[in-house]
Amino acid sequence: MGPLAVNEIISENTNLFLAFIIGIAFGFVLESCGFSSSRKLAGVFYGYDMVVLKVFFTGAITAMLGLLLFSLFGWIDLSMVYVNPLYLPSAITGGIIMGAGFILGGYCPGTSFCGASIGKIDAMIFIIGLFLGVIIFALGYDLWDGHYMAGFKGEPKISTALHLSDGVFALLVVIIALAMFWVAELAEKKFAREEY
Amino acid sequence: MKPRLILALVIVPLALVIAAVPESKVRPFKLTANELLTEVAGRSQFISPETVADMILKKDPSLRLIDVRSPEEFEKYSLPGAINIPLPDLLSEDYADILNQDVRMNVFYSNGSLLADEAWMITRQLGYTNNFVLEGGLNYWFEVILNPQKPSSASPDEEFLKYDLRKGAGMALGGGTQIETTTPRTSLPAVKPAVQPVAKKKKAAGGC
Amino acid sequence: MEEKEVKKTVSTKYLNPYLGGVLLGLVLLAANFVAGRGLGASGAVKSVVVSATTALAPSSEEKSGFIKEFRESHQGNPLKTWLVFQMAGVIVGGFLSGAIAGRLKLKIEHSPKITSRKRLIFALLGGILFGFGSQLGRGCTSGAALSGMAVLSLGGFVTMMAIFGTGYALAYFFRKNWI
């Protein structure tokens, strides 16, 4: 019964080793989809390359349905799985700053490591920027820790917030995702640019 | 075009199946029927009123009395320091931390021992430990621990009850040394069960 | 004529995005099944920063609220975390994929409309913003948005909307950098 590490079916060291293996798979898939290219990544904001939307949402609904199915078969105890907490103000401000970082840098932390691993110098510079950004946050921590710690709302799920069951909400996401895929294909045809 | 169609054709039916199935039970039973029967037969869940009275007198911090009757009955009378978890609300999320823990000894009680035993059965099946049932419930508690006093035959029933309750509260809280009983009992209270530690499952830390 | 053909082969070398998405979802599912948590990235950067800071300036542990907050959930070596091991794997995995596909090349990727220098400056700025924002938002697109959506987290969803919403809002002003 999963999660394996939480139920102590595997040791902490095995868990860390598997983290490495899972990371290899993660990096491999990301790079294979082209997430090592900042230009492909930024394309989602202009319509010429919607790979981010397609991969992201397909991944999210696959994992979402996978988890619910596993829970249905009793293979995983969902109450032991980490659900991101909600600190409302910082979730928004952090997201806004990250959005700006995305459009300027064309990467996000995960993809920047992919890009760096195949030799993209702009990805490496982005990573340096990441470290600087974290250091700046750490140095000035006392200035914003009030904001950072404010508005804790627990670990709410979207389904509970909408008063839907998890399964019904997942179905809703699937339908919305499929609709977005169709729109994405149209956008790519309309805004096509040369690939390089 | 084709990959999208394949994806849609596979994922939509899956999502429909998941949406149609009712919310999976959050707390599965940890004990099998056989395991529970063995424990029930051993009657290890019962704790004698003497032991509880002793703990109350000694102000033992590990004791937690849980009244599983309705709030109205709880208001009328409850054992000193008891909290009220009516049986219908037993599985509410609010009480999960009280019932599933390894710090205190929870002792369920009700008028007899029926409700309290039911509460114990359910929590035991969920794998919780350190929960017990007050042997004989409040009825036995009054008979054994408190001094029954014959009021005059003309007094209404309520007077009988009130007298008993007051005397009982006084006796339990006053640190009295005399416990008159109608049935012969040994002078030593039964051995107090030890609180069993529960290995807590640590949820994984996540986030980015 | 030749150019068009070359470009065609380059683009078809990438995995079909829907297939890639399914594979990504399976990796995320595996992470949740094995470790009880989703994927992530910025947390590993945080670990390295904490590790380096405590190594170079041991007194900072008391003085820094940031490090104290980290220590509350991590005892022991700050580098011995799930995310650090995962990110090490990401580097290996990305390299393998690039090697197999013949995409290994040291270069600065940029739109022909801007210089390399401009691209690098923006990359640095973008990184600083993302690094800062990921700490404030408690996650990045991998940890908050992707992994958050998989477990139906409202917090993850809010951060995701903020990231992409801002990206779209600012896209017009930086269009020259990309298209």
Question: Termini distance of chain C?
Answer: 22 Å
Major pleated sheet of chain C: none
Low-confidence stretches of chain B: 174-190
Count of DSSP strands of chain C: 0
Shape of chain B: elongated
Structural class of chain C: mainly alpha
Query: How does the overall form of chain C come out from the CA principal axes?
Result: globular
Number of helices of chain B: 8
Count of runs of 4 or more consecutive helical residues of chain C: 10
* Helix proportion range of chain B: 40-55%
Rg over C-alpha atoms of chain C, rounded to the nearest angstrom: 19 Å
Task: Give the quaternary arrangement of the chains.
Answer: heterotrimer
Low-pLDDT segments of chain C: 1-11
How much strand of chain B?
A: 5-15%
Mean pLDDT of chain C: 87
Helix content of chain C: over 70%
Straight-line N-to-C gap of chain B: 34 Å
Walkthrough of the structure:
The complex is a heterotrimer of chains A (196), B (208) and C (179). Chain A is mainly alpha-helical and 196 residues long. Chain B starts with a helix and ends in a 35-residue tail after the last helix. About 8% of the residues of chain B have low confidence. Chain C has 179 residues and is mostly helical. Chain C is built from 10 helices and no strands. Chains A and C meet through helix 1, helix 2, helix 3, helix 4 and helix 5 of A and helix 1, helix 2, helix 3, helix 5 and helix 6 of C.
